[in-house]
Amino acid sequence: MVDRPRKPSAISPSLTSDPLTTQPTVNITSSTVTASLATGETVTILPHGATVTSWKTRSSSNDLTENLWLSSAAALDGSKPVRGGIPLVFPVFGPPPKDHPTSSLPQHGFARNARWEFLGKSTSESGAIGKSKGDDSVKLDFGLSHTGLSEEARKQWPFKFGLIYSVSLSKGELQCMLNVRNEGEEAWDFQMLLHTYFRVKDITQTQLTGLLSAPCTDRVAPSTTPKPESQHSISITGEMDRVYTGISQDTTSILESGQPRLDIVRDNLRDTVVWNPWREKAAKMAGFEPKDGYKSLLAVEVGAVDGWTRLEGDDTFEAGMIVRAH
Fold it and tell me: C or N terminus of the chain, fewer CB within 10 Å?
């Protein structure tokens, strides 16, 4: 297991518990797995792509707030990757490079378009992700391996691997962790990313912090030479497609009208993609509905996409994020 010097707190059992406390519940259907807390907070995952499609938290006014953006035209039947939520990108980010072992794969790889196996749930009465100690929590595990891929996908990327994706819900927080294992003898390279679409009230009143000085490749600008981010607080005023790498801080925050909305804490990851298609691109994108949906969308995607991570035979890599709602 790789060393994680800035590893955030994970769910851990509480030393005391109240036997009368209502436990988290998990509802499993043929198309979704939904976990619910006694507070009414929920997370929903599709076995297709192990894609989180909804994460609702209880606000200070006691209303349930949806934190993820999902296209109203998103395909939820497994026919194509989901537009919205948290698609899981593996083993390549973006269009695969030529003359590389991933070159035959589709954009963003196969993980977001494969059917994952639901491995089960575990619960505790800790909710001990950070500040929410004392609240119940539930963890949902999903698995995918080379044996579960289509014959075509195995030909495109003929390596032996095992993935375990754990989604943990506690009061006001969501933790997503991907465990990658090389189950063969031959070493291979990969990239991974949690392609998270966050829902915001008004993109013109939304700011992003925690990226100051990080090397940034602006894929909308004429020049794609990386430059250090010069803004402490980043506003979104048009199409944005930026890749930040080697970020020294572990937390990037979304603010609405200057007030904290969401904290995204990277765990063993130093790269983050920030994306919004804006008006012109949204109008041309298939499956992006409504067309003015860019006004309530900010994608902040943590990952390992700067170069490649190499796994030797029997080695394991684990990384992910914790998101805290205010």
Answer: N
Q: Cis peptide before 260, with omega less than 30 degrees from 0?
A: no
Q: Among 268, 270, 88, 274, which residue's Cα sits nearest to residue 167?
A: 88
Half-sphere exposure of 17 (CA within 13 A, CB side): 17
Please state, in angstroms and rounded to a whole number, the distance separating the CA atoms of residues 180 and 317. 5
Compute φ and ψ for 187, nearest 5 degrees: -70, 150
pLDDT grade for 60, boundaries at 50, 70 and 90: confident
Q: What are the pLDDT digits (tens) for 172-195?
A: 999 999 999 999 999 999 999 999
Catalytic residue check, 186 = no
Catalytic residue among 146, 301, 312, 318: 301
Which H helix or E strand runs over 156? Answer: helix 151-156
Q: Which of 41, 173, 195, 229 is catalytic?
A: 195
Structure tokens at 55: 């994460």
- Residue 195 annotated to the active site: yes
Q: What is the C-alpha to C-alpha distance for residues 92 and 191, in angstroms, rounded to an integer? A: 5
User: Per-residue pLDDT tens for 265-308?
Assistant: 999 999 999 999 999 999 999 999 999 999 999 999 999 999 99
